[in-house]
Here is the input.
Amino acid sequence: MTAFRTHGRRITTVTFSAATMLGILTAPAHASSWSSHLSGAVGFESRRWYDSGGTNKINFTGCSDNGSNRLVNVTLRKDVTGPDPSYTKAAITNCFTSTSATSSGSWADHGSGNYYFVVNDGATSLRVWVKSLTVSY
Here is the structure.
């Protein structure tokens, strides 16, 4: 009986250690997200969200526009006093292929703060519809 208990403890210890290491090596999931849609957006600014640091990812699903552009330019911006810095523009195109197709834009960590995105910044007549969008941060 003693040999069985020792063997059982070893298996438990090895299993627990493996699970602990897997937890350490696995990347953490995004802390928060929100979802919405766009209807006829032109030069649109999204709602603001607070990010304590990390990547920001925006998914667009099922896109259409009032032209033949088949492109949505999405710019991540940080809400600060003074001019808001903008980060690399994501050219969203795949979501135009079908109502269930998704395109993503992803931005590296730019520190904690309030963020928002702008759709087709500077456009005056190009309107875009997005069936579903999700922001993860």
